[in-house]
Design brief:
Layout lengths: L4 E3 L7 E3 L2 H11 L3 H15 L4 E3 H15 L2 H8 L9 E3 L5 E3 L2 H10 L4 H17 L4 E3 H16 L1 H15 L4 E6 L6 H11 L5 E3 H11 L29 H30 L3 E5 L17 E8 L3 H10 L6 H9 L1 H17 L4 E3 L3 H19 L4 H4 L2
Parallel strand pairs: 1-3, 4-6, 7-9, 7-10, 8-9, 10-11
Antiparallel strand pairs: 1-2, 4-5
């Protein structure tokens, strides 16, 4: 694709290459996420095609048409305001370090606390415009938090404001968060865990599948055959498989529990390491079950959150597993599809146990909604464990 030059309107007809990175940054400043901003920038690049030159005015109109089709009015207004590009605001943290105010980070914190994307964009825009109106060149992070809290309290109510407050308190506090995400193959555990860790600023993510691989390297198959197979067909390695009184369901669950019990030792070690280092952790996998909670020390000040993912439509779960064939997991996907009925029965057991022990069940039908539900579950737990006040959090 040829390089397109952008012709300026400064009277000198300056020509600079069109760069997606520059447009992406401008769109992020307007309130889009990086993924959304990059997608729009890529579409603009495709529309330009072999165009050799485009004026800044024409380029601006192309972008505006793209935004009008997909974005809230506040984002479009922000992008269309030329002066917004020159406005900046410094945020000073508790250690005295300053950074530029990031609309994207501010919006994501609001969205993570439970606001919709549209409401998050609107609130961030309102806060930033207010600070620009009073010509504040710099503001402390705590003052910004208090200003946001008060605006949420007034505009959206005390419950919304408090959810934001406890999330800010978590980000600034010293308490580690242990987030446990369970579910059968194909329900989206890895993707959800990764995105949740990103939003919660958790730097350590672990899967029980990887722990199982490590244990397989350490323990030969002849010593622990249950370990060297999949969770849904571990029952093949049990002595009880040949007993006539053993039903298919009881064998399936006995095999799963036998493997999960073996993995619980490694899971406990990973969790203990995070607790001793006071670092947050996201641990995901089919082996996450309620009994793992009993292995976590009771005297810890960590926030412990467990959730079970589910895909309740068998056709949808089968489709999700089949999609792995195009993502480098062909052989595993085929094996899962061959054993789909067993996987479906295993999910029924996991959901039944989750319901029995009051573990939140989160249905994964939509990418954005499932992340929102996980974040809501985390914030709900933070609310239960928090007795902080605005004056303490934003002092």
């Amino acid at each position: 694709m040829a390089k397109t030059l952008v012709v300026g309107a400064d009277g000198h007809h300056t020509r600079v290459p069109f760069l997606r990175g520059i447009l992406t940054r401008s769109l992020q400043d307007a309130g889009l996420s990086f993924d959304e901003a990059y997608a729009v920038s890529s579409e603009v690049r495709e529309d330009l095609g072999e165009t050799q030159e485009v004026t800044t005015k024409d380029l601006h109109q192309i972008v505006v048409r793209k935004l009008a089709d997909r974005c809230p009015e506040a984002v479009l207004q922000r992008y269309e305001t030329p002066t917004s590009k020159a406005r900046s605001l410094l945020i000073r943290d508790a250690e005295g370090r300053t950074t530029l105010f990031s609309r994207e980070q501010h919006r994501r914190h609001l969205e993570s606390s439970g606001l919709s994307y549209e409401d998050s964009v609107a609130v961030t825009t309102r806060i930033f415009d207010h600070l620009m109106h009073i010509a504040a060149p710099e503001i402390s992070s705590r003052r910004l938090g208090l200003l946001t809290y008060r605006y949420l309290h007034r505009a959206l109510g005390p419950d919304t404001a408090r959810r934001y407050m406890v999330l800010v308190d978590f980000f600034r506090g010293k308490r580690p968060l242990i987030l446990l995400i369970g579910g059968t193959p194909g329900c989206g555990k890895s993707a959800v865990a990764s995105e949740a860790a990103n939003r919660l600023e958790i730097g350590r993510t672990q899967s029980t599948d990887l722990l199982r691989e490590v244990m397989r390297m350490m323990i030969p198959e002849r010593l622990s055959p249950v370990l060297h197979t999949s969770s849904f067909n571990a029952w093949w390695m049990l002595p009880s498989r040949d007993k006539p009184e053993s039903s298919p369901d009881s064998l399936l669950l006995d095999g799963y529990r036998a493997q999960a019990d073996l993995l619980s030792v490694a899971c406990e070690a990973v969790i203990s390491r995070s607790l001793s280092e006071k670092t947050s952790l996201t641990l995901e996998g089919v082996h996450i079950q309620h009994s793992l909670l009993a292995r976590i020390p009771k005297d810890t000040n960590a926030v412990i959150v467990m959730a079970m993912l589910a895909v309740l439509n068998p056709n949808r779960l089968r489709e999700r597993i089949a999609q792995r064939r195009g993502l480098g997991g062909g052989r595993r996907a085929e094996r899962y599809l061959e054993n789909f009925d067993t996987i479906w029965r295993l999910q029924s057991y996991l959901l039944s146990e989750a319901d029995r022990w009051h573990v939140p069940i989160i249905v994964n039908n939509d990418k954005e909604q499932v992340i929102a539900d996980v974040m809501r579950t985390v914030v709900d737990k933070l609310l239960v464990d928090s007795d902080s006040t605005p004056s303490e959090v934003f002092r």
